[in-house]
User: Fold this.
Amino acid sequence: MSSEGVEPGRDIGMRGIDHIGFTVPDMEEAHRFLVDVLGAVHVYTLAGKRGEDDWMLTHLGVHPRTEIRTIRFYRLGSGSNLEVFEYEPVDGQAPQPRNSDIGGHHLALYVDDLDAAMERLSARGVEFMGEPTASAQAALGQRWVYFRSPWGMQFELVSFPAGKAYEGDAEVKLWHPADPAQ
Assistant:
């Protein structure tokens, strides 16, 4: 509760994450990876937009003459949707951020069986970054492993079929894609 007695987020009507947006260098390569490797479902495509005034700068914070080549939306299992952009920037590209960089990120995908998922993804050409790690402390019961997309974006497989240690006495539990209504 906030100092005004209202739950933060509820006062603005927030329900949760609708989508996660990210930019790829090649939409067709990203599509093949997301659909053929990860099993995402392509839902719809939006036409691009060319920056001809200050709209791109004002609304997206990019160079005003940047072009969005295309935008595609995907659904991943029972979790969040993905909004995938392919841009033609006029001011060049920055390298893919590392997790330790400001703006660094990864996309974690919950799987029921980490070892089986790794085996299936390995058969589809995915190379993992090390071996699975068993979490400790509040996350005890969880195992995870990172991998990269063909364009270098970091993804994570995570699994905790018997739950995590913190859940035993938690008043609030983290949202779980295997039990979205909890």
Remarks:
- The two ends are 20 Å apart (CA to CA).
- The mean pLDDT is 91.
- The CA atoms of residues 43 and 168 lie 38 Å apart.
- The chain has two domains: 1-93, 96-182.
